[in-house]
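dude i think i finally got it to work??
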Amino acid sequence: MPIEIKELHIKINVDEKAAAPSPAASVDEAQIMRAVSESVEQSVNVQQRKKER
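look at this
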């Protein structure tokens, strides 16, 4: 049974003093970006379904 996301809350803490990312971090960034884009797509779908009602 698929999981349906009805509400999405994202909280981010930014540290400006962070060191430059290592080359291995770019792979993690790609996975993070993919996950974020999927989450955004699902939240847009939820909003569209709300408008249809």
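The two ends are 23 Å apart (CA to CA).
im so relieved honestly
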